[in-house]
């Protein structure tokens, strides 16, 4: 029987990063993955393929609608080759997952393919082409999540689909119904809207992206309505039925009136659930809560003293980069170091165009917590860089403490917001004030100037360019 210092169950962003960090710290490490490719949901059927389709569909939309204004004239019709687009997406996924294999070999991590289940707190049975058992002093559970659904919905994977199926459709829907106005629904809804589908988003809450700042929700709704996406907020879905070539969704609106929606595809994107099926966690003494999450302490240690859990199987935002931070945190904890994670400073991003990004407290949270704050906001349309690229939608908003001027939250909608948010995270990690950011030189012309201008607006209400 092979023995290890650490065994990691699951090779998604949390798992493979944890394994690499353990190996870097001198521990003999194994990683177990039930699928034939590593990378988990993120690399295979999540972050990476969805961004590939978002980029490809963005190019297609630009060719259809925006090339001419740049002086680019196309001879003949612009044609969509969906098969080719899907092939490119698959190629991106293949290159990325093979990169994980390379990293495992480089760091001398032993890989096992099969379903890992606990025999006890130190032994894992791996059922693949062959069945084997390994022993590990420490074990990290990183088995991720699966798409959630509603109890009355039958996901048939043909007309009623999850994000997994939406990433490999063989035709562009005529009318895609999207249940859930969160990150996944909006991103994939925008992909298929660009490719020619009619898209209707049905959301239970009174606004889309309801966990983000309300100003972001309002701005993204406005922009996506301009893109002809339809929204039905404050609608509670009551039934979803595949009638053959059509899907019928029934819902009640805020006046408790029944409303019916019809489309040829229905994407169910109501969140994700922790995936621990087949883990046999009870054999190791690992406890779970009633939401299916593994219970952990502040060190991410489970009720079994040698077993840790990270990523989507524990509480908190289901984000790849949150799982990565937790993977490093656990590896360094096992090695006897004193790492830390500030969960308030894990950024959130929606990869629509314009992009949406946030870090820290929203305005609604500050009001709820009765924190006195200042707010500074700057519109992207006032930037020379935005006008040059034609990306004038959006804004940057900075919230800072009324007394100390410490930055408490940064919320943005705009071109490259997913990248711009890193400046805000850095500033907040070092507990910068809005004035600190305002006095930093930002290259001109760039989108990042909006961050400086928002900081100026938050300090003394003195933005230069509005």
TrEMBL record:
Protein keywords: Oxidoreductase
EC number(s) reported in the record: 1.8.1.4
Keyword presence, Oxidoreductase: yes
Catalytic class of the enzyme: oxidoreductase
Annotated protein name in UniProt: Dihydrolipoyl dehydrogenase
Source organism (scientific name): Mesonia oceanica
């Amino acid at each position: 029987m092979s023995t290890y210092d650490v065994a990691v169950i699951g090779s998604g962003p949390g798992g493979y990063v944890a394994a690499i960090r353990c190996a870097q710290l001198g521990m003999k490490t194994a990683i177990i993955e039930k699928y034939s490719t590593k990378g988990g949901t993120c690399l295979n059927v999540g972050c990476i393929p969805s961004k590939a389709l978002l980029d490809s569909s963005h190019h297609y939309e630009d060719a259809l609608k925006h090339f001419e204004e740049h002086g680019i004239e196309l001879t003949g019709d612009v044609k969509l080759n969906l098969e080719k687009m899907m092939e490119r997406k698959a190629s991106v996924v293949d290159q990325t997952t093979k990169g994980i294999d390379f990293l495992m070999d480089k760091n001398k991590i032993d890989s096992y393919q099969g379903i890992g289940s606990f025999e006890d707190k130190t032994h894992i049975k791996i059922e693949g082409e062959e069945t084997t058992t390994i022993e590990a002093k420490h074990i990290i559970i990183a088995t991720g999540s699966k798409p959630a659904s509603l109890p009355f919905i039958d996901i048939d994977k043909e007309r009623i689909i999850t994000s997994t199926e939406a990433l490999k459709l063989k035709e562009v829907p005529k009318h895609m119904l999207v249940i859930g106005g969160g990150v996944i629904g909006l991103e994939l809804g925008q992909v298929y809207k660009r490719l020619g589908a009619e898209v209707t988003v049905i959301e239970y809450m009174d606004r889309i992206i309801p966990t983000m700042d309300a100003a972001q929700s309002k701005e993204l709704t406005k922009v996506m309505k301009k893109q002809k996406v339809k929204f039905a907020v404050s609608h509670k879905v009551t039934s979803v039925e595949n009638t053959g070539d059509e899907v019928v969704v029934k819902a009640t609106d805020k006046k408790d009136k029944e409303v019916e929606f019809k489309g040829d595809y229905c994407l169910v994107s109501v969140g994700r659930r922790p995936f621990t099926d087949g883990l046999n966690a009870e054999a190791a003494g690992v406890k779970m809560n009633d939401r299916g999450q593994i219970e952990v302490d502040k060190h991410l240690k489970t009720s079994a003293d040698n077993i840790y859990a990270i990523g989507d199987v524990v509480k908190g935002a289901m984000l790849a980069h949150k799982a990565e931070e937790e993977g490093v945190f656990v590896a360094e904890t096992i090695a006897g170091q004193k790492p830390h994670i500030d969960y308030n400073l894990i950024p959130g991003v929606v990869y629509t165009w314009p992009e949406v990004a946030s870090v820290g407290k929203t305005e609604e949270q500050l009001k709820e917590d009765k924190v006195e704050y200042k707010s500074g906001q700057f519109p992207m349309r006032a930037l020379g860089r935005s006008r040059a690229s034609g990306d004038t939608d959006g804004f940057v908003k900075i919230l800072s403490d009324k007394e100390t001027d410490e930055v408490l939250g940064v919320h943005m909608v705009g071109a490259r917001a997913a990248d711009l948010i890193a400046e805000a995270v850095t500033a907040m990690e070092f507990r910068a004030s809005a004035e600190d950011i305002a006095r930093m030189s930002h290259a001109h012309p760039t989108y990042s100037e909006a961050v400086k201008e928002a900081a100026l607006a938050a300090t003394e209400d003195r933005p230069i360019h509005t």
